[in-house]
């Protein structure tokens, strides 16, 4: 009888075990949600909070775009020594591939102390639902993550319906800048690139190729930008930690006076976090861009 009970217990624990695969190909198997979480990527932090699990956060990285949002939670950096993390007694540290590749030794040490370290970061718009669901599983908010995905997709459907009402002759030509210094634009499949597609905008740099495999940015030399000068009705630059630029910087760029958007004063900055951060803030980005590019159609948010 004891043997049957033990077998049943083992089968039961196996059936209820959860499993995800992180960005580095590591399989994480766990039988209950994690309870003490340190997040070293603002998107993870925002998402956990959005899913209603903010109380699980015992440490976060500094969010340069919103430095006061989680000011009551201790801050951590991947440059901190392992002891700082160990002494906080987390059961999960959420990172992203850039950290995983650069600090492998420290990660191995943390894992040897029984701390799960999981690397996640979607590089394309299509990966968003999977990313949101994985975070939901890790923090015990699977149902909330499912609702999160459904709510996002419903809002996107409304935006697409609005875009469908815009006559083709009213569609604008856009150049989207991700970094002014190197004349970088957004790469195919990335968050901003897909938002542009959803809004039905003519992406002048649609032929851009990623700077490297998996990158969300793509080089677009100034000569190529200027070759489309007459087709660029709107020039938008994401603004944030990755691109510290002003409208004046763009207007004063040598050669840019030939661009229609420069001539007509149609240069705009948009916060990086609402067009590039993989959370529902992307809906804010879609509406903000819609109001800039098609103000007559995006008057009031649905």
From TrEMBL:
Protein name: Corrinoid ABC transporter, B12-binding component BtuF
Keyword Signal: yes
GO biological process: cellular response to iron ion
Residue span(s) of domain Fe/B12 periplasmic-binding: 36-297
Signal sequence bounds: 1-17
Keywords for this protein: Signal
Keyword Membrane: no
